[in-house]
Every structure is written in structure tokens, then in C-alpha cells.
Amino acid sequence: MNSLFPPVHACLMQTDPESKLQQAHALWQLWQQGQLDCNPDGQPPPEAIPVPGRPRRPELVHPRQVRQRKLTTAAGRIALLHAVAHIEFNAINLALDAAYRFRGLPPDYYGNWLQVAAEEARHFRLVRQRLQALGADYGDLPAHNGLWEQACKTDHDPLVRMALVPRVLEARGLDVTPGMMERLRVVGDVDSVQVLAVILQDEIGHVRIGSHWFRYLCRQRGLEPESTFRRLLLEVMQAPVRGPFYTAGRLQAGFSSGELEQLLLLERRWQAEIQT
Fold first, then answer.
1. CA-based angle 149:153:159, to the nearest 5?
2. Which of 31, 95, 138, 237 is the most exposed place for a label (fewest CB within 10 A)?
């Protein structure tokens, strides 16, 4: 067997989207065939990868410079799908980084994140195909790098990564996707709704994987998960918690009722701070 870490790093740093998709799927197949070894290879990963592999376009700008458009127009639907495609492309890199960065974890950990990378690659392809059907393509519009910048805050610890990337950043996708689907349904874009439905179902599984490994690492360290999650939200994320929350999806994805209550309380506190 070959070490999984060099090919995972190569896929992570791949800049061509189509090549990255092919490599992500190949890695998952090789893992399933038992051809990759997750034993540490003696080469520690860098402390941070500030710029993972990505194409020259889209241009990355400040989030406030990414224009919002109405979904009643074709341009508005293209803008929404382009934003989703950018999230999915980043999600491939995030899953690969989770597999590459953290060593000495159980084999199932690496298998889970290689599976996620392959599924995120599938999502990106579906959204890109929908963009192309509308006469556009990934890279045509500017995007922002907020998702990866937030992920860089978690490079030092797999527990922090599991708590704050799948269970905060990706879980936010669970919250907003049903609303996006409904708005697209209202304007008659059934094809885009079907693409988002596939993504939503898979993302519940991705967040559930994050929840599983977060709790695993809490048990390993003798930490209580719910209070640890709240502490990390406040100390590391340092960003407002926004609702509404997709309660049914989050419960399927491994959130407890207590954690959902915590999120509601944190959102109310943030809203109160805005008003004062």
C-alpha cells in the first residue's frame, strides 16, 4: 500500500478544477480498494496552507463586493449558483485538508474525509453543469475567500477543525439551502432545485461525520462535547451566530437538542448586542 498523504496533498494543491475532481474521485476509489495507507509518513504537514490549489479565476474580493441579485432574473440565478459552486470547490479543499493535515487518527477518519471530498467534487460538477446550461461558468463572477480564511483558524487541532468547519461553516449551508430551494422553485427553476436537493442530503451526512469525529476527540480528551462546542464558538470562531436554523437537518447531522438551544441563545445575545 502507498501512503495517502502525498496524493491527497497533490489533489489539494491541484489548480485545474477538472483535474482536482478526477483526482478526488480516484483517491476515494483507491481508499475503498484498500490501496492507501494512513499511517503517519514521518513528514509533518505545514502549520497552514494559506492558498490551496484553485484556478486563476474567479477573482477573489472582499465579501461586501460580491453583488446580490434578484432570483427573478437569469443573472440572479447565475450569481446564486456561482456562489454555491465556489462553496463546493472550497469544500473539496477543506475535506482534503482534513485528511492531509491531521495524523495518527483511526483509518475511518481518513476514509470519511476522502468520501466527503469525492462527494463535494460531485456537487461542484453538478452546479457547474447547471451554470453552463444557463450560459455561464465557474470563474465568470468574483467570489470571496471567507470560508478558507475561517478554516485557517482551525489548522492547529483536529478537534477545533471538526467543531468549527463541519459543525459551523458547513452546517450553515444546511440552514440556508431549503430557503434557496424554495425561492428557486417559486421562479420555476426546477433543475437548480434538483441540484440543491442532492447537495442538501449529502451535506447532512458531511456534518454528521464532523459531529462524530468531534465527539470522538472530546471523549479522547475527557471533554464534555456541548460545553466544549460553545466555548470554541466564542473563543475561536469569534463570529456572530445567525439563524434561522434548519432544526430537522441539524438533528440528523448529529447536533443535540442542547446544542441547538445553545445556538438559539447565542443568536439572541448577538441580536441584543446589535440593538444596544
1. 130
2. 237
CATH number at residue 103: 1.20.1260
Cell numbers given for 247: 432544526
User: How far apart (Å, rounded) are the C-alpha atoms in residues 141 and 138?
Assistant: 7
Q: Which residues contact 21 (CB under 8 A, 6 or more apart)?
A: 92, 121, 124, 125
Q: Judge contact between 215 and 253, C-beta under 8 A.
A: no
If one counts the domains in the chain, the total is 1
Q: How far is CA 214 from CA 120, 135, 249, in A?
A: 20, 41, 18
Q: Does the model's pTM come out above 0.85?
A: yes
| Mean pLDDT of all residues belonging to the chain | 92
Contacts of 273 (CB under 8 A, 6+ apart): none
Please tell me the distance from the alpha carbon of residue 86 to that of residue 257, in angstroms, as a whole number: 31
pLDDT for the residue numbered 152: 85
C-alpha cell at 239: 463570529
- Tens digit of each residue's pLDDT (9 = 90 or more) over 188-221: 999 999 999 999 999 999 999 999 999 999 999 9
Does the residue 265 lie in any domain?
yes
Is the residue at 35 inside a domain?
no
16 touches 89 (CB < 8 A) = no
Task: Specify the residue for cell string 466555548.
Answer: 231
